[in-house]
Write a structure and sequence with these properties.
This protein has 264 residues and is α/β, with parallel strands linked by helices. The protein is globular and about 45 Å long. A nine-stranded mixed beta sheet has the order 3-2-1-4-5-6-7-8-9, with helices on both faces. The structure holds 3-hydroxy-5-(hydroxymethyl)-2-methylisonicotinaldehyde. The site of 3-hydroxy-5-(hydroxymethyl)-2-methylisonicotinaldehyde has 16 residues, from β1, β2 and α7.
């Protein structure tokens, strides 16, 4: 059987724990051929982000064209997109190539608190990219930004999932990592709600968790899994990667992408 191929369209994390680097490690760990379109380069480590340089939109488009026209893409994810022009370019190329199986991780802020999406680009994300998404994976603060108000109760979360679903994605996953107690993810497919539960892993090493989760979903989709199965398997993979995270650097270290292959 031909190997499944997944693409990440995201920012580079020089520290190797988030962004493109986390995505490619996740694809490799899950047995999928990985490709990357870089939207921005960050100078970053486990402590913080020390510089961001965006890639010209023409160069972003050329990277997408190059991999799609030769290698092919079974599923894709987007991560850090940085600006409205980059979002518009990515959305236009995704439509042009009729890419399917798109997971949108609406990355806004790094673990260190540094902005990865310009404030004026949130509208572009909602208008141009979310309508193309099969699955969108906001954390709690991202869901609040997408709907424009704070979310507290379980009812608030369900209302938000409905509102985000109305923007276009077939599946909305509101991640539980920023909530208190169990790390319960709320999934909405336009008809039903599913609560995916897992015990919270107590670790300071959470750099790149969102990137890893959305990349793992894309890997599952590339391998032909149904969306809900891909989401469940990604959560299981991420929980293990968090449980096996090891310290590297002085700040928030990354998860252990290869915990199923070698001990840290
Ligand atoms: O986890 C969000 C994220 C996405 N992309 C890049 C990042 C981060 C978080 O640090 O650095 C490049």
């Amino acid at each position: 059987m031909a190997i499944a191929k997944a693409l990440t369209i995201a920012g580079s994390d020089s520290g190797g724990g988030a962004g493109i680097q986390a995505d490619l490690k996740t694809f490799a760990a899950l047995g999928v051929y990985g490709m990357s379109v870089i939207t921005a380069v960050t100078a970053q480590n486990t402590v913080g982000v020390f510089g961001i340089q965006e890639i010209d939109r023409e160069m972003v488009a050329r990277q997408i064209d190059a991999v799609v026209e030769d290698i092919g893409v079974d599923a894709a994810k987007t991560g850090m997109l940085s600006s409205a022009p980059i979002i518009e370019t990515v959305a236009e190329r995704i439509r042009h190539h009729a890419l399917r199986g798109l997971v949108v991780d609406p990355v806004m802020v790094a673990k260190s608190g540094d902005r990865l999406l310009r404030a004026d680009a949130v509208e572009a994300l909602k208008e141009h990219l979310l309508p193309l998404a099969l699955i969108v994976t906001p954390n709690l603060p991202e869901a609040e930004t997408l709907v424009g108000h704070q979310l507290q109760s379980d009812d608030d979360l369900r209302m938000a999932a409905r509102a985000i679903h109305a923007l276009g994605p077939a599946y909305v996953v509101v991640k539980g990592g920023h909530r208190s107690g169990e790390a319960t993810d709320l999934v909405y497919d336009g008809r039903e709600f599913y609560e995916l539960r897992s015990a919270r892993v107590e670790t300071p090493h959470t750099h790149g968790t969102g990137c890893t989760f959305s990349a793992a979903i894309a890997a599952g989709l590339a391998r032909g899994l149904e969306p809900l199965t891909a989401i469940r398997e990604a959560k299981e993979y991420l929980t293990g990667a968090l449980a096996h995270a090891y310290a590297i650097g002085r700040g928030h270290s990354p998860v252990h992408h290869f915990y199923r292959l070698w001990p840290a």
